[in-house]
Amino acid sequence: MLFFKPKSIPPDYTAVAQYKDDFEDRSSSEPQDSIQLLEKENNNSSQTPPNPSKLPLVVIYFSLALALLSAVNIALLPATLSQYLAYPLTDAEIKALPYGDERIGLDRVAQITRPLQVYDKTWPDRIARVSRKLKYAVWGQGVQIYITVEDSTVMRFPIPSHGTDMCALFWKPPPESSARIKDLTTKGEITEIEVWKLIATSASGYSDIDDINYDTLSYSTLPVRGELLGVLDLTARPNSTTVEFACPREAENLVVEMRCQRVACHVDFLQVEMVPRFGFELLRRQK
What superkingdom does the record give (predicted)? Predict the structure, then answer.
C-alpha cells in the first residue's frame, strides 16, 4: 500500500498572500500616480490666462460711435450750407484758399529731365555745283543739289543772329507718304556725306568768304577746305544731324562743301522751299 508523504516546503518559498499584498500595493499606487497627473494638468490649465472675448464689444461700441457722429454731421449739414449761402466768400478769400496740386508730381519732371534743346534754322541762300572732273565747268547759282564721287555742291547758310556758339548741319528727308519723295534721287552708299567748311585764303584769291561769285564758281576757283564739320547720313529718319561745332564768330554766313566719302554715291534733288520742305539746313542752339 502506497502512502503519500507530504512534501516539505522549502525555506525560500514565498507565500501567495505576499503576491496579493504586492498587487494591492501596486494597484493602490497607480491611482496616486494618476491623481498626481491630473493635479499637474489642473495646475497647467490654471496657469494659462483665460481669453475673454472682448473684441466684439469694442467693435460694437466703435460702430455705434461712428454712426452717432455720422448722424450729427448729417443733421448739421443744412445749417452749415445755409451759412455759406448767406455769407458768400469774396474773391480775395477764394484766392487765399489752399488748392491741391492736380499735377501728381508733374511739376518735378523738369528737375529730373534734361531741358529740350531749341535751335534756330536757316535755309541756304546760295547753291552752286562744281565738278572735280570738269574743273572749269560753271553751273552757276541755282537750287540743284548734286553730289557724286566727282561732283560736290557748295552752299552758303546765313548764321542765325541769336543763340549760343554751337551750330550743326541738319538733313531732313522728304516724308515717305509725300509725293515729294520722287524728287529725291539717291544711289549707292549715302550714309556718309562729308560737310567741309570753306575758308578764304590769299592763295584762292578771296580776301573774304563772302566775296565768292556763285555765278562764275568752278572747281578751279573753289576756296580751300578748312575743317571737316561732320558727316550726314541721308538714309536716317526722321533726320540726321552732324555733331555740334563752333559757329563762326564775327561772320554772317557759313560756306560749306558737300561731297561723297564713299566711291558709290549719288544724291540729286532740288532744294526749294516747297511744303513739305526737305533738304539741308543750318542749326544754331538757342540760349
Answer: Eukaryota
